[in-house]
Each structure stands twice: as structure tokens, then as C-alpha cells.
Amino acid sequence: MNELEALFEQGSEWMPWLVDTVINLSIGLIVFFVGKFVAAKVSHWCEKRLLKASVDQAVAGFASSILYALMFAGVALMALGQIGVETTSFIAILGAAGLAVGLALQGSLSNFASGVLIILLRPFRSGDFIDAGGQMGTVNRIELFHTYLKTPDNRVIIMPNSSIMDGSIVNFSREATRRLDLVIGISYDADIRLAKQIMEDIVSADERILKEPSCLIAVSELADSSVNFFLRPWVASGDYWAVRADLLEKIKYAFDERGVGIPYPQMDVHVHKQES
């Protein structure tokens, strides 16, 4: 009987501590999950407000990612403090561990730094079509560590920011106009003047081709199997691919109708019979 009473006495001594621990743990978990939810909502709301204020989508996405990361860190510290973890000591421990983690995560830190440089230097904006890091696509979103590109066939490419900043960036959308660089070959027995006149007529009839700068049509090379022309009209950047395809199709039809041959690679073989 005495042992049972002693057990109850020990239980009564531990019960307040156990209850407080369970309550603090429950409150800490509630703070963490509610705070995480609120942080996501606030960052999303801020991104929408920035977009309404005509801020570039890439900048808005990057800013919302930073805001969410900061709020999430604050919520985590609040939850740990509610549980009973000494946050001051914990921050000091995190600072010491951060150095080691930083050395181990140099790639991620490099991606973060590259993301900051992308936002500051603005080599491209959301909606620009770029060629960077060996990939081509339309910039959809820039986040802390990655940039999202959407390809013309609707694939999403998630690229590390460092791979973009470490190489050349070709921005096809930065300028309002672009020049088409086409090489048109005709056979050696075709009329050069006629071929040139046909291309001039096609170019002048297309309203999408700009009058200034003027289109260059000139013989560029006397190649092995053809006489090659430069065809270099200027168009609006958004019309580039459509005009290119239309020009090639119209030139082919016009050459066929007017008897201008388009050669293919050929080789003359001469056979000499040796007298025995």
C-alpha cells in the first residue's frame, strides 16, 4: 500500500510538468502550422499587389519568395520558443552551424546570389524568350534558387540561377525588332536578276517587313552547287518566326512558277578508260 501511495505522489508531482509540456507543445505546433499558412497567404498577397502595381512578374515572384522565407524563419523561432527552447542560444547555435552548412551548400548559396544578381541587373524579364545555360524558353518566374522557363512545346524547365549567370544569355525579346538572316540558293543556269526581282517583290508585298532599316538582298557566295543570296529583312520581334516561314514558302512557290531552279548538292564523276 505504501508503494502505491508513493507512486501516486510521484505522479502528482510530475503531472503539472507533463500537462504544461503537452500544452506548450500543442501551442507550438499550432503556432508553427498556422504561422506557415499565414506566411504563404501573405507572400501570395504581396505578390498579387506587386503585380497590380505593374511590377515585373519575375521581381514579384522573387520578392514573395524572400518574404516567405523570412516569415517562415520567424514562425519557426516562435514555435520553438513556445515549446521551451531557448531561442537566443538556439540562434547562436544556428549561426555556428550556418557556417558549416553554408560551406556544404555552396551551390545553393551560389544560386541565391545569382538570383539576386538577376533581379538587380535585369538581363531579362518575365515573358522574355531567352537562350541561357543551354536551354531556350520564355521566362515564367524567378525564385530564390531557380528560374522557371516555359518552352514553345509547353514544357517547364527549372534551371539553377547560377547556371544562367555563369554563361552567356541571349535575350530574343529585349529589342522591339529583329533581322532575319536567310540564305537563298539558286542554280548556276538561273537568271540572277530575275531571282533577285522575285525576292524584292515578295518582301515589298509583305506588310510585316519593316521599310526601315531596308532589306538587304545581294549575292553572297558562288558556292559549289549554287549561287547564294543574302536575304535580310527587319521585322517586329513577335513576327520573326511567322515571317521567316512565309518568306521561305513564297520564294519556293515563286521560283517554281518562274523557272528559277533551286539546286541540291551534286557531284560530277568523270570516268576515264585507260588503254591497255
From TrEMBL:
Keywords, in A-Z order: Cell inner membrane, Cell membrane, Ion channel, Ion transport, Membrane, Transmembrane, Transmembrane helix, Transport
The chain positions of domain Mechanosensitive ion channel MscS C-terminal read 181-262
By its UniProt entry, which InterPro entries does this protein fall under?
Answer: LSM_dom_sf, MS_channel_1st, MS_channel_C, MscS_archaea/bacteria_type, MscS_beta-dom_sf, MscS_channel_2nd, MscS_channel_C_sf, MscS_channel_TM-2
Looking at the record, the residues that make up the Mechanosensitive ion channel MscS domain are 108-174
Q: How does it sit in the membrane?
A: Multi-pass membrane protein
Q: Residue ranges of the Mechanosensitive ion channel transmembrane helices 2/3 domain?
A: 67-106
Membrane-spanning residues where?
A: 14-38, 59-84, 90-121
Top-level taxonomic group: Bacteria
Q: Where in the cell is it found?
A: Cell inner membrane; Cell membrane
Q: Which portions of this protein are annotated as coiled-coil regions?
A: none
Main location class: membrane
Similarity comment: family membership: Belongs to the MscS (TC 1.A.23) family.
Job of this protein: Mechanosensitive channel that participates in the regulation of osmotic pressure changes within the cell, opening in response to stretch forces in the membrane lipid bilayer, without the need for other proteins. Contributes to normal resistance to hypoosmotic shock. Forms an ion channel of 1.0 nanosiemens conductance with a slight preference for anions.
Identify the PANTHER family for this entry: SMALL-CONDUCTANCE MECHANOSENSITIVE CHANNEL (PTHR30221:SF1)
Q: Please describe the quaternary structure of this protein.
A: Homoheptamer.
From the Swiss-Prot or TrEMBL record, give the protein name: Small-conductance mechanosensitive channel
Q: What is the lineage of its organism?
A: Bacteria, Pseudomonadati, Pseudomonadota, Gammaproteobacteria, Oceanospirillales
